[in-house]
Amino acid sequence: MNVWGLLTGGLILAAAYIHHGLGTRKIWLPALAKLDEAQVSQRIKATLGFMWHGITLWSIVMGLMAIYAVFTQNSAPEFAKAFYLSICLLNTPFAIVATLYGKLVYDKFRASPQWLLFWPISFTSFLAFISV
Amino acid sequence: MGLILAFLLFATGCIHHFRGGGSIWAPMLVQWQDVKQKKLVKGTLGFIWHGVTLWFIGMTGLALYAYVTPHIAQGIYLSLAIQNLSFAIIASLYGKLVYGRFLASPQWLFFWPIAVAAFVAYSGAM
After folding, report:
1. Is A61 helix (H, G, I), strand (E, B) or coil?
2. Chain A interface, best mutation among B42, B80, B97, by max A CB count within 10 A
3. Which residue of A has its CA nearest to B74?
4. What is the CA radius of gyration of chain B?
5. How far apart are CA A106 and CA A4, in angstroms?
6. What is the DSSP letter of A38?
7. Which of A65, A89, A111 shows the shortest C-beta gap to B40?
8. How many structural domains comprise chain B?
9. Which residues contact A112 (CB under 8 A, 6 or more apart)?
10. Residue-range definition of the domain harbouring residue B112
11. Which residues, including other chains, have CB under 8 Å from residue B82's CB and lie 6 or more apart?
12. Would you state the pLDDT for residue A111?
């Protein structure tokens, strides 16, 4: 069994839970209240809203893909490799931007602390990829 | 189909960054300056916005990589189809359910073609 793959799946599902549970309460709902206050257009609110909730579903899907890859690694190793590579390469952009954005724009690494979630996911998915 | 998928992904990344940046993100930042907002909130939404640009570039690279490495292509195309499908579903539903208009979040116009192209590329790579 690919332990790194299982860990990747667990981390991604945990990140989805944190994003949806904690993030929505602490970030999205206060943001939405301020967006209403600033009377921004429906299109802006809907775009940011769909991105926010889309990330929840995207994370759930990625987590399930990682877990699926763990259990099909022996019968379909190419799929497992592709899934881990894809998860690694598509989480790394978010890890890089999250690390730089808060520091460069707001001078605080903790202004966008989500790199704390994205880097471990990128790292473990890379380890899962090379251990297939 | 793999090349068409890569083109769609790259074009969507450009549209997100340039057109979306000009008509959605920049106006929002301007309007937001009038209200007090926590750095955590602004930093999070900002990193998501710019992260999505880089995410599209990453997906374009993956689609091109799949095109030149047939033995792993199927898995990559399937992965791209599933991941984009999740955004296509939310974009289609969110604008309609929350704001009563499908065009409130019109990005499903990009995500559905990408998801379908990725699935067709997956089927073709079998």
Report:
1. helix
2. B42
3. A79
4. 16
5. 34
6. T
7. A111
8. 1
9. A97, A98, A99, A101, A102, A106, B40, B43, B44, B46, B47
10. 2-124
11. A61, A65
12. 86
Local confidence pLDDT in tens for the 126 residues of chain B: 889 999 999 999 999 999 999 999 998 888 877 777 788 888 999 999 999 999 999 999 999 999 999 989 999 999 999 999 999 999 999 999 988 888 888 899 999 999 999 999 999 887
Predicted pLDDT at A34: 85
pLDDT of residue B39: 84
Q: How many CB atoms lie within 10 A of CB B67?
A: 18
pLDDT, residue A41, reads 85
Counting Cα atoms < 13 Å in the Cβ hemisphere of A130 gives 5
Tokens of A80: 């497992």
CB contact under 8 A, B39 and A108: yes
Low-confidence residues in chain A, pLDDT < 50: none
How high is the ipTM of this complex? 0.91
Under 8 Å CB-to-CB from A129, ≥6 apart: which residues?
Answer: A81, A84, A85, A88
Q: Where are the domains of chain A?
A: 3-130
Residues of B in contact with A76 (CB under 8 A): 75
Chain B positions in Cβ-Cβ contact with residue A89 (cut-off 8 Å):
58, 61-62
Exposed e or buried b per residue across A61-71, where buried means at least 16 C-beta atoms within 10 angstroms of its C-beta: bbbebbbbbbe
Positive or negative CA dihedral for B79, B85, A52, A98? positive
Do A90 and B58 lie within an 8 Å CB cutoff?
yes
Contact assignment for B59 to A90 by CB distance below 8 Å: yes
pLDDT for A70 equals 94
Token readout for A14 is 């945990």
For residue A96, the number of C-alpha atoms closer than 13 Å in the C-beta half-sphere is 13
Mean pLDDT of chain A: 92
